[in-house]
Amino acid sequence: MSIISTKHLKKYYQDKSVTVKALNDVNFQVSEGEFTAIVGPSGSGKTTLLNIIGGLDSPTSGSVIIDGTEITNLSDNQLIDYRLKHIGFVFQAYNLIPVLTAKENVEFIMLMQNKPRDEREERANALLEAVGLKDQIKKRPGEMSGGQQQRVAVARALASKPRFVLADEPTANLDSTSTATLLDIMARLNKEENTTFIFSTHDQRVIDRARRVVTLEDGQIISDETR
Amino acid sequence: MNTVLKIAWRNIWRNKVRSFMVAAAITIGIWSGVFIVSFSNGLSNQRKDAMLKSMISHVQITNKDFLDKYEVKHLLKPTINLDAIGQNEHVLAASPRIKIMGAMASTARGSGALQLIAVNPELESQVTDMHTRLVEGEYLKGTKSKAIIIGQKLAEKLKTGLKKKVAIRFIDHNGNNRSESFKVVGIFKSISSKYDELTAFTRIDDMNKILGVEGEYHEVALWLDNLENAPGVVSQLQTQYPDYEVRDWKKVSPELGYTDDMMGMTLYIIIGIFMLALAGIIINTMLMAILERKRELGMILCVGMNKTKVFTMIMLETIMLSLIGGITGVALGYLTVSHFGNVGIDLSALEKGMESFGMSTMVYTEIPITDLVKITIIVFVVSLLAAIIPGRRAMKLKPAEAVRAI
User: Fold this and answer.
1) Is A108 on the interface with B (CB under 8 A)?
2) What is the per-residue pLDDT across B62-74, written as a single tens digit (0 to 9) for each?
3) pLDDT digit string (tens) for A30-71?
4) Chain centroid, CA A1 distance in Å
5) Which domain holds residue A142?
6) What is the Cβ-side half-sphere exposure of residue B194, based on CA atoms within 13 angstroms?
7) At what angle are helices B294-303 and B307-343 packed, to 10 degrees?
8) pTM of the prediction?
9) What is the number of other CB atoms lying within 10 angstroms of the CB of residue B298?
10) Which residues of B268-279 are buried (b: 16+ CB within 10 A; e: fewer)?
11) Edge-to-edge strands of the sheet including A18-31?
């Protein structure tokens, strides 16, 4: 059963007198537990598609249905609540809060959800252990390597037990060792906890590990390969 | 809320140098403001107190016609009962005065215009402190002839001194030109060199004899238990003596009253200017901080922190930063004002200029605690208002764009 479904999704931008078709009639479904990479050249619409699925941008037309809810009809506040409860985000530049420790960064989402302290601490510890950072919980982002920061970001994305994780170029700033470690962790979480991951990526190492690869070009899906 | 507060507090210290510079700028601004206000207060209040004590007193009862024309003939008739006035609960002392305005003093070596004030030395000493301001001689005592004390400046102008004679010409109550000779028994120096140049005192008994009147005078000067009671006393006495003009010190010396009122406004004007600068610093700093943290703010908006919390976080950062600087500034200001309130600031290098304005060269800074509380509240309110602009800027960030900002 698909947890994400887009129908005739279009996103057009007006750039001076030219209409840019960032997404042009994209029909796309993601089922629970998928490990999907959305690939394509720069400007193909990968990030736009992720933004719209993540409720960070609105389409020009078409619909985005997540777990049966049409999210394009939601208000700004409903979308914020929706993102908080249902989506985990991993960004290319990690985007951790530099003044908080690794553990506090992971707890941050749960604090927004008003989870009790015990539950927050237990889950933050468990997630940081799962990403191999049990001994780094008191460190601030500035004291960690890029790979470690991105692992904290993955732990943070999973803190709210989201329905799926959207990862935008998560390995773009990482060396090969860190990339391999991160992919191992995400693959394990996908397999063991059935967490759904959707990546936008250029990185062949990510593409190689994905079980489904959707290729976009000029705002359209030109191939959808399941391995 | 705790998380927002914690992040806001830590955010302040992520760029320690900048936060320190901003807090220091606010501290210096507020400290300077407090000091300038307290210095102005000290200057103004000392001038006011000195003028009240040496010249004006708290309340004056005067013949209405005398106030119009300043002619000697307009004496207070029937004579006001000084004992009855003294029974007013707020009146500590009452002193009658005869005032000869537009007189001309002359000696063999000089001349000058003056006002000659005839007083009862004993009663006048309870109302003004001129008896303490003598630099030579005694206060209208120790001689049988017509005694006079004159200002130091006038003595210089007339090129005269103690025990010398001064001839004073004036128009008497009958409209006749009179010339009387007085013996200088004292030379005073008040806080105003202008006053010293234009004023002389003699005994009311001597003047009574010169004018041939008994127990009549132009005005009665009153000293009260508290300056604040002046309006109430004026109202009571005006009802009691409807034929006379009863004026408090502000009416007697509008310039002094105006200066006093202006000082109250000065606090707000000076603080207002500093607050504008403060608001500018705060807005500029916080907008810069938001620009630097655009990606981070984008992230927290992406993952689900609502805009109200983002706005609150920026507001808290701004207010905390302002209050650190503001409270430090007020505290430093208080310490400085307390110190110079005790030891004073010696401005004797500016003596001549200050004396011509009736100001003492030793200034004791003073500021009411209520004004310090007001300043602290104003700092809080200004930082609150100034925080709105960066707060709104943070709220308006588009998460998808902000999160990728370089």
Assistant:
1) yes
2) 888 888 888 888 7
3) 999 999 999 998 888 898 999 999 888 889 999 999 988 899
4) 20
5) 2-226
6) 9
7) 130
8) 0.70
9) 22
10) eebbeebbeebb
11) A18-31, A2-15, A61-66, A69-70
Given a cut of 90, is residue B215 above it in pLDDT? Answer: no
Paired residues of B385 in beta bridges: none
User: Residue A171 has what pLDDT?
Assistant: 86
Residue B108's contacts (CB-CB under 8 Å, 6 or more residues apart) are: none
Q: What is the mean pLDDT of residues B76-100?
A: 83
In this predicted structure, the answer to whether residue B155 has a pLDDT above a threshold of 90 is yes
The pLDDT value given to residue A38: 94
The residue of chain B nearest to residue A162, with distances taken between CA atoms, is: B303
- Tell me, yes or no, whether B177 and B261 share the same domain: no
The reply to whether omega before B78 is within 30° of 0 (cis) is yes
Using the Cβ of B297 and the Cβ atoms of chain A, whether some distance falls under 8 Å is answered with no
Distances (CA, A) of A84 to A46, A109, B317: 22, 7, 24
CA pair distance A173, A195, nearest whole angstrom: 23
| Same domain, residue pair B306 and B175 | no
> Is B144's pLDDT higher than 80?
no
Residues B273, B396 within the same domain: yes
Domain extent, residue B211, equals 75-217
Residue at B232 is within a domain = no
- From the list B295, B303, B309, which residue is nearest A109 (CB)? B303
Same domain assignment for residues B262 and B398 = yes
Give the separation between CA B221 and CA B357, rounded to whole angstroms: 23
Q: What is the CATH number of the domain that holds A51?
A: 3.40.50.300
Q: Do A80 and B306 lie within an 8 Å CB cutoff?
A: yes
Tell me: pLDDT of B405 over 80. Answer: no
Rounded distance between C-alpha atoms, residue B396 and residue B406, angstroms: 18
**Rounded mean pLDDT of B106-130?**
91
Residue B149, strand partner residues: B186, B201
Q: Is A222 on the interface with B (CB under 8 A)?
A: no
Residue B156: pLDDT band (50, 70, 90) is very high
Nearest CA in chain A to B399: A56
- According to the model, what pLDDT value does residue A139 have? 94
Which candidate from A89, A95, A111 shows the least CB-CB separation from B295? Answer: A95
- C-alpha–C-alpha distance, residues A217 and A210, integer Å: 19
User: B198, B217, B236 — which closes off a domain?
Assistant: B217
Cα separation, B149 vs A106, whole angstroms: 87
- Confidence band, pLDDT 50/70/90 cuts, at residue B254: confident
Number of H helices, E strands in chain A: 7, 10
Count: domains in chain B: 2
Contacts of B297 in chain A (CB under 8 A): none
**Total domains present in chain A:** 1
Chain B residues lying within 8 Å of A85, measured CB to CB: 304
Give the separation between CA B262 and CA B268, rounded to whole angstroms.
Answer: 10
pLDDT confidence tier of residue B45, bands split at 50, 70 and 90: confident
Which residues does chain B have within 8 Å of residue A97's beta carbon, measured at their own beta carbons? Answer: 7, 296, 299-300
